[in-house]
Write a structure and sequence with these properties.
Helix content is about 80%, strand content about 0%. It has 14 helices and no strands. It has helices spanning about 5-30, 35-45, 45-75, 80-95, 100-115, 120-145, 150-170, 170-195, 195-200, 200-225, 225-245, 260-275, 285-295, 300-335. It is globular.
């Protein structure tokens, strides 16, 4: 079997596996629910709140484009806000179909449109993701501080069986960890001893060049002149995310009593469903959000399932429509626009 065919086959099997996993989680989320009640909640929901939440979603994407422009400009390249925003939305469209493809897609689109090296753009995206991870960690700490009892009990119920299992098999765990570190040490020693031989390969030079470009993109945060504006954009993005997640709780009677802090909890823990390696977070998002609402806040399971279904559908429709329109505009209508870095 040819390497390319083998690679595509493995990728297809991997994609189908995670798609099946998402479908399984989706089934677990809804199979015990009263579908008539879920349908009633969906039909009677006040969608004005969802539309308002989607306005904040668009706002967060514009802020993300502004922040990305700052990173790109710090490397000495020029970009248009409109082009960067469209690239961001195309990235969200790609993530809806294939997990983590969006980062590559938006860098590829912007690289082609504005003549900016792909690896440098990808480095800026890594910088973004690291900052977003820090912000998410801060929100999780805030949630734990403000809702220590609720979140503590929820996490304990999830991890207590795992921890008990680990302690009953501690010898096996120690052997595994020890073997892992020995293997890592041997690998590092082998690479170090063979470094001159490895450098002789063309593939090494390509990988080294790619990694250097990524490192250059990451360093852009330190080169930036207006760091406070960059920090402001980062905080504003996550503030908009928080509002975007909280507002939809007002759609349904069963969830309308939840507070903004409760919305932060949904954002913090529910983000795990979005970053899960399933297409568009389908299934994983529904399972986690429904679990949060039922286990933490004693929301009726039917209403919790309805909330998860409506919010996920709203975000997915927004990403598909805005991403498709962005792609059509950049690749068809605005195809002949002169690159900023010619």
């Amino acid at each position: 079997m040819k390497p390319q065919i083998k690679k595509r086959l493995i990728s297809t099997i991997e994609y189908l596996f995670f798609l099946g996993l998402g479908a399984g989680l989706l089934w677990l989320s809804f199979y015990k629910l009263d579908y008539d009640e879920v349908r009633k909640d969906i039909m009677e929901a006040d969608y004005h709140w969802l539309l308002l939440a989607l306005v904040f979603a668009i706002g967060s994407h514009i802020l993300r484009a502004l922040r990305w422009n700052m990173l790109i400009n710090a490397m000495g390249y020029k970009t248009r806000l409109s082009t960067t925003f469209f690239a961001v939305m195309i990235g969200y469209l790609a993530n809806t179909a294939v997990p983590r493809m969006g980062e590559f897609m938006r860098c590829g689109v912007l690289s082609k449109k504005e003549r900016i090296p792909f690896n440098a753009l990808f480095g800026t995206v890594i910088s973004e993701r690291l900052l977003d991870l820090i912000m998410l960690a801060i929100i999780i700490v805030m949630v734990i501080i403000f809702q220590l009892d609720l979140v503590g009990n929820y996490i304990n119920n999830i991890f207590e069986p795992i921890i008990n299992s680990l302690f009953t098999n501690w010898i096996s765990i120690l052997i595994f960890v020890g073997g892992f570190f020995v293997l890592v040490a041997i690998s590092i020693w082998f690479v170090w001893q063979s470094r001159e031989w490895i450098k002789s390969f063309r593939f090494y030079n390509k990988v080294r060049g790619f990694l250097d470009g990524i490192l250059e993109g990451i360093k852009t945060v330190l080169k930036m002149e207006d760091k406070w504006l960059f920090i402001f954009y980062t905080i504003a993005i996550w503030l908009f995310y928080s509002i975007m997640v909280y507002i939809p709780v007002l759609m349904l009677k069963d969830t309308s009593h939840l507070s903004f802090i409760d919305g932060l909890t949904i954002l913090a823990i529910g983000s795990l469903g979005i970053v899960a390696p399933v297409p568009g977070g389908i299934g994983a998002y529904h399972f986690i959000v429904k679990s949060i609402l039922v286990e933490l806040y004693s929301i009726n399971a039917n209403a919790a399932g309805s909330f998860a279904a409506i919010t996920h559908a709203g975000q997915t429709i927004l990403n598909v429509l805005a991403g498709s329109l962005s792609y059509f505009y950049m690749m068809v209508i605005n195809k002949r626009q002169k690159p900023s870095n010619d």
